[in-house]
Design a protein that fits this description.
The protein has two helices and five strands. It has 95 residues and is α+β, with helices and mostly antiparallel strands. The longest helix is centred in the middle third of the chain and has 19 residues, at 24-42.
Amino acid sequence: MIKIMTIAATAMLVSAQFAAASSDAAWNALFAKVNGTCIGQSGMDTPEATAPIVFDDATGKVAVLLRGSMGKGKSKVKNVNLICLYDKKTGKASI
């Protein structure tokens, strides 16, 4: 009886490893896509992006704060902060 319980417990522990929702590689791919989309839509020269903030699955959004400067020449504005909301379902970003 103990042998059967030990085998069952071992099988459950081994299979729990494969029950993870998403791998680190999947999260990193999503975050790279979010940063690329948000930076591209921001219109900033070389923005700094914060770590993504992932909302629950009910909203399906990821937020990124962008800091940088906008414009050129005399009309250049420094120290601009923008927030970008990325929709995981549609792949679109809103600044």
